[in-house]
Amino acid sequence: MATNPLVVAATALALLFVFWRNRRARSSLANIPGPPAVSLWKGNLPQIFNIKGWDFPAYVTAKYGRVAKMRGLFGKEVVYASDPRVVRRVLMNFPPPPMVTESHNLLNGDGLLGSNGERHKKQRKMLNPLFAVKHLKSFPPLFFEVSQKVKLRDTYLDKLGISEEPRVLNMHYWFSRLTLELVSQASFERSLDPLDSEDSAHPYTIAVRRMLPAALPLSVLRITVPWLRYFGTKRFRRWLVHSLPWPALNEMGEIVDVIQRTAISTYEEKKAIDIDDPTRKDVLSVLLAANRRAAAEDRLTEYEVISQMGTITAAAHDTTPNALARLFWQLGKHQKIQDKLRDEIRQANLDVNGDAAQLYDGLMALPYLDAVIRETLRLDSPVSMLQRRANVDTTIPLWKPIIGVDGKEVTALNVAEGTDFILSLHPVHRDPEIWGEDALEFKPERWLSPLPDAVADAALPGVYSQLLPFGGGYKACIGYKYAELQMKVTLYTLLLAFKFEPSEDKIYWNMHMVATPSVEGVKGSQLPMKLTAL
């Protein structure tokens, strides 16, 4: 079908008008310096979202300071910030831009990540008790059982032959599968992966693993996402996703279908059981029971409840496997630290079949284990940036002044409603004025003594040790304690059984919204490591 030239002309004029308006708009950021745009219509976004652009945040901080002005789509101004006071104010007060929230909504429904405002508050209120330590203390035996299954009984030692000789495995692949199995059992009381061979993953596990790579080619659509819900019915949009001749879009449609079918079938199974049975501790059972008892105005809809399944698993899969990959990658490079951590674990000699609460407390009380995780999440946070949008006019004092375009010191940032922020976490976690001159070193011992006074003064709003891998503010990750438990159980279990060493492959990390490991010339996320049985 031929394209109507009038439609093309009208679209081009509309885009030119948006570009002209953004360029001509009177700006409260006129005195904030920043690098020139590298693209007429994408501004600095190719630099900010360059998957190999790890040097860019450090370059911006060194040249312009902890706050810089950049250009987004069609010339719109964007605040690029690593100033801790700006990070704190923005995360504590401003929501994600609509394109972020609506992207999650399209993929996973009306869950925590796909909602804002009063709906988000209502969901958070209902879910908070399910992610509290009191509830979490019932899960260590389950987590150890699943982790030991992948460690000893069948897979690594026997079926993969590591008991006979060392072998190189793609640990990112196994961490992804292990994480999703732990999440599915703890959250939905459903096993989705036997973890007994290299090719036994459930279709749901495969779909969730494919989601992030499949989303990257579709990033060009993100600007249109807030308006997509008005484009016909949901059924019509689904038909378009599967019918348009765009392989990346078709693949994403298949992924979403698998996730939604699994979520609905899990929900239907749960409706048929006695959800008030006190022995059922999984998140979905407890949520359904709490939702049934809640007042009508506080109750979640059936669709909101179903949406939590995709939300929880997608959020867990984005961060925890990549955090585990970073942990073992660092331990592989630092054998003395690996040995010291293994010694602490051996000496602890926790009773993994004993009382669940005591097991949880014992695991959380291991100081070097805690220090290794904190240091890895500080130096190599899996989340490299967060996006927010100002919903009011405000002024934000800076932690340290910057030099404005006029050559004078700027001590506060004047922000207009609608201003977009990209919070760059990498330089925040590596700032020598916050963490000390050794900020670029992998040094778990820093967490075993008092941190510099500047850490308290910076007052980062992270929910985990003033670190930001799980975000901060009212949109912080609700499941960060689950992620911490998964990481500690995995480290405890695997380090007792194996020595981890780097393979001969050259590993590089992709700076997506969540950093992933790769090997040059090999498709997909890869972290090959050499495992030797102990």
TrEMBL record:
Principal localisation: membrane
Matches recorded under InterPro entries: Cyt_P450, Cyt_P450_CS, Cyt_P450_E_grp-IV, Cyt_P450_sf, Cytochrome_P450_monoxygenase
Location in the cell: Membrane
PROSITE patterns, per database record: CYTOCHROME_P450 (PS00086)
Protein residues bound to heme: 477
Entry annotated with the keyword Metal-binding: yes
Pathway where it operates: Secondary metabolite biosynthesis; terpenoid biosynthesis
Keywords per UniProt: Heme, Iron, Membrane, Metal-binding, Monooxygenase, Oxidoreductase, Transmembrane, Transmembrane helix
Single GO cellular component term: membrane
Top-level division of the source organism's lineage: Eukaryota
Listed GO MF terms: heme binding; iron ion binding; monooxygenase activity; oxidoreductase activity, acting on paired donors, with incorporation or reduction of molecular oxygen
Reported cofactor(s): heme
Family affiliation: Belongs to the cytochrome P450 family.
Name listed for the protein in its UniProt record: Cytochrome P450
Organism this protein belongs to: Mycena metata
